[in-house]
């Protein structure tokens, strides 16, 4: 072989070898492609329920998830792993925290903290607590109807309860019975405490419900979706063993329709809850903008049937229209979707109604709207606590229309000089809640003096016009 041929072959072999060497740009592209695929895959799988955990969460994220207690002070503020801690200092509700391998056992109404090997470790103390996870522990009338839940650490053979459904987020266990079904209590005893207790987890929590009801889950599904990314679990009827990295059992309660920012790790207030309701119900195309408004100020009258009914409602509607309002009468029924209620009230300027549970829908009013509560005889204090004070905290303009004796049906039932009519406060002193309920809440209707009401509605109309000019 000549030297020229040998040199040509060496040159060809060298070129071939260079062709098999990895190119830097190709490697970079390949690495980028793999990273993108992993990122997309993690986003795709995160849409599944908490039942499946494809990727182990980084330790920092797990610590955030397991920050079960939103309070930075008081009992259980420093919760160690593999422990149960209960805070029973609040007048309204108890709450317990379980950190570690949590497993449900519905047939025995139990939540177990699994401690493998604890039987061989004398330094690990076994614990047992009981709790009724409802926000009215002071209410003797309902207490016996609230099931007791047992929280126990387990070891040895007893700890061999196998996981059938594994979650990668903590559980929030609460009772949805009691006065649930009365829309005021649905929010005051349930939705608002749920928000207080879970908001700091940013929907990374599974709701485990005692006395689960399909109608409740359906009615409040849009709100529940703002509190948890996962479908609620029916504790009593789902007999599978659910496993969690931790659990909150019970709900925090701050007062009547109240959220105390000073007690929240994120300084949340009732106005933050109102934003959450807006996110739940406001049409997506309107988020960030104002809902369409009628040409003239809109007055919504929340109508009642049965007790505390407005007997001259037709006259009141005509009065509102005469003043210049566009008047809509809202008759809440259990089957009415909350989204429809929201759409009606979020677009109105003034809401008016006689004291009662349905006034809770003032939560759907926009800040600055005017709320008129018609207060029947004998319920001044109840009306102020339930709706008057919360309305101010919510940023509403609050007006109280106190019914005169001659505007109450009690005037004609008992007579002008009877203490029931003449001095309700003295009559009620020392008599208890049942008398208030039977005589004043369930025993009277109202017929409003349209001349007197005219002044109130005229001021409301002028206020609404003024507020509209600022938008």
What does this protein structure show overall?
This protein is α/β, with parallel strands linked by helices and 471 residues long. The protein has two domains: 61-281, no CATH class; 293-469, Flavodoxin domain (Rossmann fold, 3-Layer(aba) Sandwich), CATH 3.40.50.360. The chain contains 16 helices and 15 strands. The strands form two sheets. Strands 1, 2, 3, 4, 5, 6, 7, 8, 9 and 10 form a ten-stranded mixed β-sheet that branches. A five-stranded parallel β-sheet has the order 12-11-13-14-15, with helices on both faces. Mean pLDDT is 85; it is low at 1-22, 27-31, 38-49 and 51-65. It is a single-pass type II membrane protein. It holds the Pfam family Glyco_transf_61.
Low-confidence stretches: 1-22, 27-31, 38-49, 51-65
**Backbone shape:** elongated
Structural class: alpha/beta
Largest sheet: number of strands, sense, barrel closure: 10 strands, mixed
Cα Rg = 30 Å
Count of helical regions: 16
* Overall average residue pLDDT: 85
Helix content: 25-40%
Distance between the termini: 95 Å
Subcellular location: Golgi apparatus membrane
Keywords: Glycoprotein, Glycosyltransferase, Transferase
Region (Disordered): 1-20
Membrane topology: Single-pass type II membrane protein
Compose a concise summary of this entry.
This protein is α/β, with parallel strands linked by helices and 471 residues long.
């Amino acid at each position: 072989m000549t030297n020229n041929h040998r040199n040509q072959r060496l040159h060809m072999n060298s070129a071939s070898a260079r062709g098999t060497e990895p190119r830097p740009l190709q490697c970079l592209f390949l690495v980028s492609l793999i990273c993108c695929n992993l990122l997309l895959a993690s986003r795709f799988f995160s849409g599944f329920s908490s039942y499946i955990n494809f990727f182990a969460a980084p330790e920092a994220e797990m610590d955030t998830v397991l920050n079960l207690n939103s309070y930075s002070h008081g009992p259980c503020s420093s919760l160690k792993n593999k422990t149960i801690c209960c805070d029973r200092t609040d007048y309204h509700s108890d709450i317990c925290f379980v950190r570690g391998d949590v497993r449900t056992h519905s047939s025995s109404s139990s939540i177990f903290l699994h401690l493998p090997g604890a039987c061989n470790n004398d330094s690990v103390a076994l614990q047992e607590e009981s709790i009724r996870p409802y926000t009215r522990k002071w209410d003797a009338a309902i207490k016996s109807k609230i099931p007791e839940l047992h929280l126990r650490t387990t070891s040895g053979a007893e700890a061999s309860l196998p996981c059938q459904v594994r979650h990668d987020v903590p559980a929030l266990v609460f009772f949805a019975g009691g006065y649930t079904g009365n829309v005021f209590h649905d929010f005051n005893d349930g939705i608002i405490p749920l928000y207080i207790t879970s908001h700091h987890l940013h929907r990374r929590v599974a709701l485990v419900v005692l006395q689960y009801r399909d109608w409740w889950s359906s009615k409040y599904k849009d709100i529940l979706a703002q509190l948890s990314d996962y479908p609620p679990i029916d504790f009593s009827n789902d007999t599978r063993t659910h496993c969690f990295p931790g659990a909150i059992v019970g709900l925090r309660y701050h007062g009547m329709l109240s959220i105390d920012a000073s007690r929240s790790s994120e300084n949340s207030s009732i106005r933050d809850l109102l934003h959450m309701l807006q996110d739940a119900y406001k049409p997506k195309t309107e988020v960030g903008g104002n809902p369409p408004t009628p040409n003239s100020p809109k007055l919504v009258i929340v109508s009642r049937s049965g007790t505390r009914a407005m007997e001259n409602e037709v006259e009141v509607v005509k009065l509102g229209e005469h003043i210049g309002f566009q008047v809509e009468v809202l008759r809440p029924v259990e089957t009415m979707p909350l989204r429809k209620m929201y759409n009606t009230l979020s677009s109105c300027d003034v809401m008016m109604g006689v004291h009662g549970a349905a006034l809770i829908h003032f939560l759907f009013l926009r800040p600055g709207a005017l709320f008129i509560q018609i207060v029947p005889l004998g319920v001044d204090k109840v009306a102020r606590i339930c709706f008057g004070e919360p309305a101010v905290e919510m940023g509403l303009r609050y007006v109280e229309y106190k019914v005169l004796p001659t505007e109450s049906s009690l005037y004609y039932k008992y007579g002008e000089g009877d203490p029931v009519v003449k001095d309700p406060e003295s009559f009620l002193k020392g008599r208890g809640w049942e008398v208030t309920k039977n005589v004043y809440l369930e025993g009277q209707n109202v017929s409003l003096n349209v001349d007197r009401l005219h002044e109130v509605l005229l001021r409301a109309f002028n206020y609404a016009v003024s507020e509209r000019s600022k938008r």
